[in-house]
Design brief:
The protein is an alpha/beta fold. The chain is built from 15 helices and 14 strands. Bound molecules: adenosine-5'-diphosphate.
Length: about 400
């Protein structure tokens, strides 16, 4: 059985074809600059990568090119489109309408569209990707897997903001959380690795990448998460501010003459590690700059680690304990310095890591707990595509 996983952005479309027998990708790649001059497809299968530069005026043309690449005699991974049993789509926002993945029907698509205003940059692109696939593969079942769904189990006192209740009722203003597939995947993997049922574990999962979020997972259920109404909230990120006092928005407008939209863009694109350091949003560049004496790069890294550490402590308190701390995504999986700084001083919670083990890179699940450490600290490579493929196989094919 093979599942095609699609992650459509406004001008991009990433894909993986996953063989569910092995749960491995047999082909993967992406189209970039869709609808813009200079579009190209990067496709990898059988250990080889090809790049096809060709005009892609819209997502439908992009999907057709992906399918052509997948069945190509030389570069493909399957002999016909019929070998794709189902398609799983990453969709950013479920609103309050879906608490889990769902088989896509015309009614479901309408509901997804009704939540587009909650994620105006991403949701319309996700819908475009779904429509493009439906046009080209009308009889292939499709499933929507939401970034927010794993967080739907948060209790009301964790997801509500203390704004007038009518703002929640009328405009759906509340915490939703994102990166749900990743938090679900790594918390499940942690339980498997520790050989314990999820019902016995209190886990804090740190998804630290370009966008970062921390979640509290109690008995397999998310009970709190650091991102909020949008992915701008929580810890400072590559270019995002994370949590700030909302009064700053109006103050900046008055001082600079920026419009509200410009200030929000400033907080999304010009802030975070990039804004503080003035060097880069990439942690590799920041580490190098900090090591060579750049104090603002040092400050950015300190702020990131401090903020992440505060969430770990807060979520241990929220759950009344912590059994396991997980690091994942680009920074969580690769940056031993950040892992060390986040865990430093958390011995009072039973969290301490083995520095030598932490410095070792394995690319697999990796236990970095210090000898005698009460809380298991794990580095777990995330695999959001596999979560999408598994849900798709289950919902579309009953497998
Ligand atoms: P996205 O949120 O775009 O999926 P990723 O999870 O791939 O992001 O994380 C990307 C970030 O991970 C990069 O910006 C970089 O800061 C960080 N990163 C990747 N590799 C390393 C590394 N070897 N050391 C430190 N940081 C890394």
């Amino acid at each position: 059985m093979k599942i095609l996983v699609i992650n459509a952005g406004s001008s991009s479309l990433k894909y993986q074809l996953i063989d569910m027998e092995t749960e491995k990708a047999v082909a993967k790649g992406g189209c970039e600059r869709i609808g813009i001059e200079g579009s190209f497809l990067k496709h990898k299968a059988n250990g080889k990568e090809i790049v096809i530069e060709t005009p892609m005026p819209d997502h439908k043309v992009a999907v057709k090119l992906v399918l052509d690449a997948l069945v190509d005699k030389e570069h493909g991974a399957i002999s016909s489109m019929k070998e794709i049993d189902a398609v799983g789509h990453r969709v950013v926002h479920s609103g309050e309408d879906f608490d889990k993945s769902v088989l896509i029907t015309p009614e479901v698509l309408e509901t997804i569209a009704s939540n587009a205003e909650l994620a105006p940059l991403h949701q319309p692109a996700n819908i475009t990707g779904i429509n493009a696939c439906r046009a080209i593969m009308p009889s292939t079942p499709m499933v929507a897997v939401f970034d927010t769904a794993f967080h739907s189990t948060m209790p009301d006192y964790a997801y509500m903001y203390a704004v007038p209740y009518e703002a929640y009722k009328n405009y759906k203003i509340r915490r939703y959380g994102f990166h749900g597939s990743s938090h679900l995947f790594v918390s499940d993997e942690a339980a498997k690795y520790l050989g314990k049922p999820k019902s016995q574990l209190k886990i804090v999962t740190c998804h630290l990448g370009n966008g970062s979020s921390i979640s509290a997972v109690d008995c397999g259920k998310c009970v709190d998460t650091s991102m909020g109404f949008t992915p701008l909230a929580g810890v400072p990120m590559g270019t995002r501010s994370g949590d700030i006092d909302p009064a700053v928005v109006e103050f900046l407008e008055t001082k600079t003459g920026m419009t509200t939209a410009e200030v929000i863009n400033y907080l999304n694109k010009k802030s975070g590690m990039m804004g503080i350091s003035g060097v880069s949003s990439d942690f590799r560049d920041l580490s190098a700059a900090s090591a060579s004496g750049n104090d603002r790069a040092r400050l950015a890294l300190d702020m990131f680690a401090y903020s992440t550490k505060k969430y770990v402590g807060a979520y241990a308190a929220a759950m009344g304990g912590i059994d396991c701390l997980v690091f994942t995504a680009g920074i969580g999986e690769n940056d031993s310095f950040i892992r060390e700084k986040v865990t430093d001083g958390l011995g009072f919670l039973g969290i301490s890591i083995d520095k030598q083990e932490n410095a070792r890179r394995t690319g697999d699940i990796h236990d970095i707990t210090a000898a005698g450490g009460k809380v298991r600290v794990l580095v777990i490579p995330t695999n959001e595509e596999l979560v999408i493929a598994r849900d798709t196989a289950r919902l579309a094919l009953g497998k």
